Amino acid sequence: MIDFVGIIFANIFCNLDIPFRFTFCSTDFMPDTFKTFDTTTKRILPFILATAIFMQMLDSTILNTSLPSIAKDLNESPLNMQNAIISYVLTLAVFMPVSGFLADKFGTKKIFIFSLVVFSLGSVFCAVSQNLTHLVISRVVQGIGGSLMTPVGRLALIKTYDKNELLKALNFAIVPALIGPVLGPLVGGYMVDYLSWHWIFLINIPIGLIGIFLSLKFMPDYKSKEIKFDFKGFLIFASASLLLSIALERFGTAQNITPVLVIFICGFMMIYFYYRHAKKTENPIFPLNLFQVRTFRVGILGNLATRLGISSIPLLLPLMIQIAYGESAVISGWIVAPMALTAMFGKSYVIKILDYFGYRKTLMTNTFIIGFLICGLGISGINTNIYWFIPIIAVLGFFNSIQFTSMNTIAIADLRNFHTSSGNSLLAVNQQIAIGFGIAFGLIVLKLFENEPTLIQGNTHLAFRYTFFVVGFLTILSGFVFRRLHEKDGENMKTEH
Q1: pTM to 2 decimals?
Q2: What is the CATH number of domain 1-229?
Q3: How far apart are CA 462 and CA 468, in angstroms?
């Protein structure tokens, strides 16, 4: 059986961006700046961000299939090994909000390179760990680097490109977030079988060195002359992120759900406290007037609603193949793998589709299609060949690629320059929470059906089928959120031909 916690957080990391506030000043957004970069720099910058995302995603997902082997080598119980995952995630939650302040003060180039160095060093420390304590500490070091890599790199991208160029750049950089959760377990499984678990961390080193080399040469260095940091807001928001991360991590495996619910409620209370704080503070870490922008509101709500359905599929399908069909983790990994290939294929059509149909039609129709495809995963019976799932999951990967790019870009389409950083960061936090909710929701629905013997009559496969129907129907309903978009929304994001 594959590791619940590992897959949960592997998916939470998908499309992860980290919250920060970038104080507006004269150097924040200068149109003339765009013209100072040569074509090579603008071409390489998305690749630099993609390299960082890929390294982070690969590291997060490659660990899943390796935990039993690591536990055996370190003389630990496999159940205790989830601490190696939790420590990384909680470090991200704590250090998320401070990344923007550091980028403001020291510059995007310095902080981005620093994050790559720290993450790479953390990887080396993980590889040479002699016990679980050393591994947990090393994962904390990795988490510090990971909390800075993606947000700072994405900030540099947003500040370098005009909005009519931004969609193309982000579309390229997001590919690792789509393929990482699929390729990670496969690569990890083969490395453990043919090499050793140490190599799952050492593989980060050459990738990190490439990222450092390219950053030294091509990464722009944006700073703010005016540094204002909402420290109280940071503490409140970090606490909320920490509590919600713990609750979401425990949802899937908790025997007693009451303590989890208490932590969950405390997390939302901290969000409420932040709301009270932001109303009274002049420069909050996330300004409340962000929600006055209609496309941002719809983007936030759409991300939350849609990901409640989509996010559980990379968890539920491998589980069903292994538990209900009795196949190996490697077989389940290969069945899900086509999603990565079609996601890459879909990315080349995203821009054309959005330019032709617009964001409203694209997002509504695309969400409906994804919902029906998820329902399609529940059609086959236990005697159906498992390779039935390959064409469905392949088509799903194509439309997921369109969905994620569209939702992310429409949310920032109408933000003013001085709100772009905070808006993008808040969107990313929302994504993290939504993905966690989606995975927890999928597991809860599955458990509810499993605990109804009169309904499934001891047939675990039937419980999975019903879960896919529920999740798919929820996804179809979420498509109506995008009705609040106007036909002309996102026109300013159209690419130049």
Answers
A1: 0.74
A2: 1.20.1250.20
A3: 10
